[in-house]
Amino acid sequence: MSSDPESPKAGLRHLARFLSDATGARMGILVFALICMLLIPGLTLLGRDHQSDSEIAATGLPVALQDLERALGYDGFIHHFKNAILRPDEGVYHDLAVEDYETALEILRDIQAMGLAIDERFDIAALEGTLAIYRENLDAAREAQLAGLSIAEVDALVRTPDAEAAADLDRLHRSVTAGLTDWLARDFTRSRIQLAALSGMLFLIAVVLLMFLVATHLARRERERQSMELHDRLASLGQLTSGIAHDVNNLLATIYYAVDLTLGETIPDTSRKFLTSAQRAVERGQNLTARLLAFSRPQPGNAQTVEVARLFETIKELAAPQLDEGIRLRLSEESAGLTLHCDPAQVENALLNLVLNSRDAIKMSGQGRLITLNARIHEGDQLPHHGRDGDKVIHPLPDEAGARPLRASEHGYLLISVRDDGPGMPADVRKRALEPFFTTKASQNGSGLGLSIVYGFAQSAGGDMQIRSAPKEGTEVQLMLPRGQSADQPLPSATAERTAGRGPISAVMKAVEKRVPEGSAGPVAPAGGAAPRTTVLLAEDEPGLRELLTVTLEQKGFEVISAEDGRQALQLATSGEHFDLLLTDIVMPGGIDGFELARSVRESFPDLPVLYLTGNAGPILSTQVAVKAPVLRKPCPPDRLFEAIAKALPSLSLAPMGQPET
Fold it and tell me: Looking at residues 608-616, what average pLDDT do you find?
C-alpha cells in the first residue's frame, strides 16, 4: 500500500479548518484545562487532610505506648496495686491504683482509635481482660482487709502473676510497631502515587494547553491561507479582467469618437437615430467595463460629499419597484445631516446591490420580510469586530498596490449597514462570500461579482467592509466609509447626474491667452497678429483612437502633436516641440507609461498641465504617482474632455464643436 506524503499536511489542514469553524471546540478545550487546574488544589487539599490525620496518629502512637507503660509499670497501676495489699493501713494506694487503672483503659482506647486512623486494628482485648482481673482482685483485697484477714492471707487470695500482663503489653507494643511500619510503607507509596498523579495531571494540562495553542495557531494559519488563496484568485482574475477591460475601453472609445464625429456631420435622421443607439450601447459597454475594473482593481472614483438622507431616499426609490409586496425596506439614520465622502454612483450601486441581495435571500428561502438600511457615526478607524469570530466572512488580504484601507479620514467615519432577517449564511457560503463569480442564485440570476465589487468599492473609498451572518440569524453587511464635511449645500444625487446626459461646457472664456512654461521658447504667433492656437501633445498607443482624438481636438480649434507611445512623446517634448497641454494614455508599450511620461516632461516644464486618459486606472493614482492630475476614463465624451481641458487651461476659450477657431 502506497502512502501519500501529503496526508499529514492534509490532516493538519482538515483539523485547522475544523478548529477555525468550531469555536465551541476550542472553548471546550480551554474549559477542560481550567477544570483540571482547579482540580489540582482540590485533590491536594483532600489528600493533605487525610494525610494529616494519619500523621497525627502515627506520631501519637509511640507516645501513647510510653504513657501506657508508665500507667501500668512499677510507678503505675501494678506498683500501687501491690502497695494497696502490702500496706492496708495506707488507703491512698488503693485510690491511686484505681486512677491508674482508668488512665490505662483510656490510653488503650486512644491507641485503638489511632490504629484505625492509620488503617490498623490493634487487639487490646487481652490486655483489657488482664487489667480487669487486677481490678477485681483490688476490690477483693479491699473487702478481705475490711474483714480482718492478715496481709499474708490477702496476698495469697489475690496474687496474680505479672508475666501475663507483661506478655499482653509486649504483644500490643509489637503490634503497634508493626502497624506503624506498614503505615510508613503505605504512606510512602501513596505519596509517590499522588506525586505521579499530580505530575500526570500537570502534564495533561500542559498537553491540553499546547493543543489549544497549536489549534489556535493552525486555525489562524488556515484563515490566513484561505484569505491568501482568495486574494490570489482575486489578483489573478483582476489582472485578466483589467487587461480585457483596458482593451475593450480602447475599442469603445474609438467607436464612441467615430460615432460622435459622424453625428457632427450632416446625415439623415434615420442614420442619426441609429448612431445615437450605437452611442448609448457604447455607454452601456463602458458601464460594464467599469464594473469589471471596480471588481478587479478598485477605482478611486469621483469622491464628493453625499447626503445620507438623500442617498437613502434614492436607494428606496430605486429598490421599491423591485421589492416583493411582503418585503419592507426600513431606513434608519442615527442623526440628521450625516454625510459621506465618496463616489455617489459607486455608493448607490453598492447599497442597491446589498439591498437586492437581501431581497433575493428572503425570496429564495421564504424566511424574513424586513431589510434595514442604517447609518450611524462610527468612532475609531476600525470595524467593530465584536461577537463571535465564526460568523464573519473571510476577507482577502490587501495587496501592496494601494488596495489597503486608508484608515484615515479627516472627519471620521460612518457605519452604513444593510441588515435583513432572512435565512443567514451557512459556514460554507460565508467562507466564499467574497469569491468572484461565486453565487447561490440560479445560474441565470446572478454573476457572483456583487459582493466582490462592493468590497472593492469600500477599500478604494478608504474604508472597509464586514459581513456578519449565521444560519437563522439573518445577514448584516457593514460598510465603514469616510464622513463628509457638511450638508449645508444641496448635493446632486448620482442618479440625477447619470440621467442628466451630456451638456455644453459651463464656462467659456473670453480671450485666448497662452501660458508658456518657464524656460520654453513658446509657440510662434502666426503672421498678421492672429492669436496662436493651443497645442496639445497627445500620447495614445491605439492608432484608431489616436486618429479620432486628433480630429476631435482639431475640430475644436486645437493644434495636435500626436505620438504613438510614451517614448515617442518624450522625444517630441525634448526635441523643441512646443505644446501647452499633455494628454496621455496611462498604459502604453515601450517602457514609458503615462505616469513616467508626465514625470519626465514635468522635469523640463514644471507648470505644464497634464491630463490622463485611460481605460484602466486603479488606486495607484492616489499613492505612487509623482504627477497627480485628473484622470478621464475611456470612452470619455468630448464635452467632458473639453471641460477638463478648460479647467487645466483657465485662460482657454473654446469654440463650439465643429467650428475650428481662426
Answer: 86
d(CA 608, CA 610): 6
Whether the pLDDT of residue 583 is over 90: the answer is yes
Q: Give the pLDDT of residue 239.
A: 67
Looking at the chain, the whole-number percentage of residues with pLDDT higher than 90 is 7
pLDDT at residue 616, rounded to an integer: 67
How far apart CA 319 and CA 211 sit, in angstroms, is 50
Integer Cα distance of 84 and 96 in angstroms: 9
| Average pLDDT estimate for 42-50 | 56
C-alpha cell at 181: 511500619
Coil, strand or helix at 414: strand
Instruction: State the cell numbers at 177.
Output: 510497631
β-pair partners for 482: 413
Say which range, 134-143, 170-179, 449-458, has the weakest mean pLDDT: 449-458
Of 45 and 520, more confident: 45
Number of H helices, E strands in the chain: 17, 12
Please enumerate in sequence order all residues whose Cβ is within 8 A of that of 450, keeping only pairs 6 or more positions apart, or say none. Answer: 353, 357
pTM reported for the whole predicted model? 0.45
CA distance 448 to 433: 9
Closest residue by Cα to residue 401 from 231, 567, 243, 540: 231
Options 3.30.565.10, 3.30.200.20, 1.10.760.10, 3.30.70.260; which CATH number does 299-500 get?
Answer: 3.30.565.10
- Mean pLDDT confidence for 290-316: 74
Q: How confident is the model at residue 300 (pLDDT cuts 50, 70, 90)?
A: low
Domain definitions of the chain by residue range: 14-221, 299-500, 527-648
**Where do the DSSP E strands lie in 534-634?**
535-539, 559-563, 581-584, 610-614, 631-633
* Of residues 375, 357, 563, the one with CA closest to residue 447: 357
582: Cβ–Cβ under 8 A, 6 or more apart, which residues? 536, 537, 539, 569, 573, 597, 598, 601, 608, 609, 610, 611
Q: Tell me: domain 527-648, CATH 3.40.710.10, correct? A: no
